[in-house]
Write a structure and sequence with these properties.
The protein is mainly beta. It is built from no helices and 11 strands. 0% of the residues lie in helices and 53% in strands.
Length: 123
């Protein structure tokens, strides 16, 4: 059974940093694309960043490039999202999700999801 568990969310002031973690189990970690998505109240879920460990195929949304960094630790079966220079508009519930194959797909192509972790950035 595929399981994804997010952690690391919280409340931070604008300009601050957080590191989210996504612990994965139940599948061949390196072969799967593991992505971070976010959903703010009243808005659609959007892709933030994604990585596939086997070839380090990655994707980052334009809105977070230069501020967020995705990485993975195959031994720990964990994907991290380091978020720096946070802005109030980054406030959302952040989800990690997994799919077999590449990163370059929208949320509807990711079949397994974690429960989400809240990130709130105050101004």
């Amino acid at each position: 059974e595929v399981q994804l568990v997010e952690s690391g969310g919280g409340l931070v002031q604008a300009g601050g940093s957080l590191r989210l973690s996504c612990a994965a189990s139940g599948f061949t970690f390196d072969d799967y694309a593991i992505g971070w998505f976010r959903q703010a109240p009243g808005k659609e879920r959007e892709g933030v960043s994604c990585i596939r460990s086997s070839d380090q195929d990655t994707y980052s949304a334009h809105s977070v490039k230069g501020r967020f960094t995705i990485s993975s630790d195959s031994a720990k079966r964990t994907v991290y999202l380091q978020m720096n220079s946070l802005k109030p508009e980054d406030t959302a519930v952040y989800y990690c999700a997994a799919r077999l194959g590449s990163c370059h797909h929208g949320p509807s192509d990711f079949g397994s999801w974690g429960q989400g972790t809240q990130v709130t950035v105050s101004s």
